[in-house]
Amino acid sequence: MTFITPVLQLIGSLGFLLYGMKLMSDGIQKSAGEKLQRTLSVVTGNRFVGILTGLLITMIIQSSGATTVMVVTFVNAGLLSLSQSVGVIFGANIGTTITAWIVSIFGFNFKISAFAIPVVGAGYFISLLKKKNYHNIGEALMGFGMLFLGLSGLSDVFTPEQLGWLFNIEGHGVGAILLGFLIGILITALLHSSSAFSAIVITMAYNGLITWELAAAMTLGSNIGSTIDAILAAIGTSADAKRSAVIHVLFNVFGTVLALIFFKPFLKLVVMLTPGHESSNIAIRISMLHTVFKTLSTIVLLPFSKQLCTLSRLIIKDDETKTENNSYKLDFQESIGKESYATYIIRAEKEIADMSMKVSRLFEKIQIGITERNDNFIKNYLEIAEQEEDYLDQMHEQLTHYLIKSESLQVTEKQINHISNMIQIVDELENMSDNCMSAIMLISRSIEKKMKYHDADMDRLLPYIELTRQFIQFVNKNINTSLSDEKLRLATEIENGIDAFKKDLKKVARKRLENGADVKAELLYIDVVRQIEKIGDNCFNISETLTTN
Known about the structure:
Number of strands: 0
Largest sheet: none
Order of helices and strands: HHHHHHHHHHHHHHHHHHHHHH
Mean pLDDT: 84
Helix content: over 70%
Strand content: under 5%
Distance between the termini: 59 Å
Radius of gyration: 31 Å
Low-confidence stretches: none
Shape: elongated
């Protein structure tokens, strides 16, 4: 039993620690993560802004793995460029050191269970509340308490008396240092969390189970092991997304190699910067090492951001099979590493915005056809319009499938409603593309049949088309936002204006019929008017859906 009991306590405490960290990170991400991710998706090309963004997001959600997975996902979706991702990755690496500081400051200065158990209890009762984000906040508090309960268990078991037989590595000599370094890589990769491994290392060092040098080597190794999530997230993604994962690996490998080459001077620098120096608390010293390592790596590598991008392009070649212009592909890939469900919604929003712009370009062909009613329109625009409409059909099918799959993830009720609204918007956009194509085909038929219209009759269509075009622009501008009452009133006014135009145009066409105009030509004219009015209806339906977002 002297052998089994400590091992079982180790497994149980480690489970508490890992599940607590996951629960805390998930709770924070559910309550504030989507806003943070939206901030990440619009980060600028300024490297320092990128570093600050990555730093703050990682400090809040307590997971550099989750941040780097977001980065890879956004690069794959085209929301971030490769160069923009570099700063965020650097900042995320610095931000992940906050967990080590929390553990070292709060974990060993007083009895952990004195506050950990009440925090878990309070978090549970808060999670029962259904108002606002209380459930998510309660989960985060429960995770925070469980993290320290796990840490307390580890502190009790990681002692020379309990597990000294398992950890008898001497912390001196190159062999021991390299062994500790490899252990750091492997265990961190298995745990998928450098923060969790840092907590374990700090606990072992604080209890005298490993030396300062060995703890430092393990901590350096954990920085390479922590890249596993970005690597897994990059599987099956675009070349640039893979390159962003490679840059994350290069950052940690280059920094670690430099630290190992100058191992002794590096440790002396850390000790010098730690309050108390040689007599300082070893837990604080390890946290300082983590922070100094990440900060120095950023300072050294930041001027070489462009070179890192170039090196990543040499390692990862461009995608061999380029998607053809008339072929759309949107694969749904569940994250293998850290879950970040809001990224699926943000990706879908970007695709919907692209779809809306493509519908707008298709609509422009109607105006061209009305103003240039000759064979050149059929020759120069009809085939292009057919290809664009086919592409939009593909977008409709694959985006709908993507959104339905996203609904099956562990998303919040609010996110489910948003996804449902996006499915409706995609349907309306596809209907708009069909109506645009119908109008274009009617115009083409009138040209082929050489139907005669007075210039004045065609000119009457132009303000009608222009008003509808403005409505489409209004939708494009607000496609992923929640419309205010004022904007909905504006949409209603435009819709009423289009309806009034339609009535006047149909009335004029009927008068021409009564005066002996060509029946087929006038009926076709009325059909064009009707198709454009349907496009206005689609725009208004989207506007109404956006008010419920």
